[in-house]
Amino acid sequence: MDSIIVTGGAELKGQIPIAGAKNACLALMPATLLSDEPLTLTNAPRLSDIKTMTVLLESLGAEVRSMQEGRVLAMSSHDLTNLTADYDIVRKMRASNLVLGPLLARAGRAVVSLPGGCAIGARPMDIHVSGLEALGAEIELKDGYLHAEARKGLKGAVIEQRFASVGATENIVMAATLARGTTVLKNAAREPEIVDLVRCLRAMGAQIEGEGTSTIEVQGVDRLHGATHAVVADRIEMGTYMIAPAIAGGEIELVGGSMDLLPAFCEKLEGTGISVTPTANGLKVARSNGRARAIDVRTEIFPGFPTDLQAQMMALLCTANGTSVLEETIFENRFMHAPELVRMGAEIDVHGGHATVTGVERLRGARVMATDLRASVSLILAGLGAEGETVVSRVYHLDRGYERVEEKLSAVGARIERVRGE
Ligand code: UD1
Average pLDDT in the 385-397 region? Predict the structure, then answer.
């Protein structure tokens, strides 16, 4: 397995291009299943999670052609030959469950294994299931698989989610595009990735209103047609690289980024004393004067502070001046990076859904291991400001969600390299 070695202490300067959003692309790809005409995505990120979704779609009979070194995905689901999403693929990535709604809507039947993914909590699927049942599907859990059927087709309904789940919103909206009549989804997720999915579905002929608000209304249509859609910028990649100069010092421009994608995060980062300014190409982040200040952070659904940036923010707060409290409200087991940061000299006390971080002057490099995607990158960020060498192992988690991380960071002056493993 590959490792990444970071030697701390180098200030960063330059530009980092932001890729298309992994989480948007993973919802957009299954949208191909809704139509027998081609769907083409541009600005796709080159990540192992995208390969996993490709394998899953191909296993269902879709064709996925990767062009321009993976930047363009040309998909066609003219013939669906299989309606079962197998455990061996789904266990690698929770987002595989996003084929459930589209398969059900197009083919009237789907069998989808319960998902795996990052080890950051229970992550059940009850909200997906109750939403699709409200649309008329009959769903049964047998041998670890959800068996879903809509014999008479799906029918629009008023659905209120008990929590604004991102994945359930995506599954329900996709299913509703081909249902008879009107679906009103209340307490819908408002994330930019949902807005991006709705724009693509609309380009395919779907009739949807209200994306980006907590009520989405879908008027079902008989069929969707082909389209070409550009994937929105990856706000989590952007936020991650915004923290790099905040830890290491220096100034970075995030090309293609935008503050609107991360309102609460930008505000919190500014609260630590880091400057964030819009530019013609995106935005610029700079740390010029001394240590960051401690701040308190609570993860929330959009537009609140994203859970996917909590680990990276913790890496920064480890060396901030003062004591910070981070509260995780979205996932119950998402402080697995804390013990690894402690190995680097951080002072962190985890108690339930809270972590109290007392800033130290400097972290020290160490051998550390990541247990999930965002945790891995937080250790790399911590290593950028640490004294000496940090060796991060198990970086396959990282490759699921960050494209060429070592190339992007070394291009702005970080001392970072990948060591190929067996
Ligand atoms: C998506 C993102 C993930 C991000 C998360 C929250 C993708 C591919 N992944 O994941 O990176 O961290 O949003 O912003 O877009 N829940 C239930 N029942 C359900 C569904 C969810 O209890 O049926 C719970 C989950 O266990 C979790 C919380 O709701 O505690 C958030 O989950 P959800 O919003 O569904 O996240 P994902 O779509 O899985």
Answer: 94
How many Cβ atoms sit within 10 Å of the Cβ of residue 232?
A: 23
Q: At what angle do helices 310-317 and 263-271 cross, to 10 degrees?
A: 0
Average pLDDT, the chain: 95
Centre of ligand 1 from the C-alpha of residue 123, in Å: 7
Domain 22-230 maps to which CATH number in 3.40.30.10, 3.65.10.10, 3.30.40.10, 3.30.830.10? 3.65.10.10
Percent above pLDDT 70 for the chain: 98
Give the catalytic positions in this structure. Answer: 118
Give the pLDDT confidence score for residue 396 in this predicted structure. 86
Domain extents in the chain: 3-18+234-419, 22-230
Cα(220) to centroid of ligand 1, in Å? 25
* DSSP structure class, residue 180: B
323: three-class secondary structure by DSSP:
strand
Mean pLDDT of 118-134: 81
- Residues in the chain, total: 422
The pTM of this model reads 0.96
Q: Quick one: which atom of ligand 1 is closest to the CA of 373? A: 11
**Pocket lining for ligand 1, CB < 6 angstroms:** 23, 26, 94-95, 121-128, 163, 165-168, 193, 307-308, 330-331
Name which of 29-33, 188-192, 367-371 the model is least confident about.
367-371
Tell me, what's the pLDDT at 397?
A: 87
Count the neighbouring beta carbons within 10 Å of the beta carbon of residue 407.
10
Residue 389 burial by CB count (10 A; 0-12/13-18/19+): exposed, middle or buried? middle
Question: Residue 117: is its pLDDT beyond 60?
Answer: no
C-alpha angle with apex 98: 94 to 101, nearest 5 degrees? 145
**Could you tell me if 210 and 202 are in contact, meaning their C-beta atoms sit under 8 angstroms apart?**
no
CATH architecture of the domain covering 3-18+234-419: Alpha-beta prism (3.65)
- Answer whether 3-18+234-419 and 22-230 agree in fold: yes
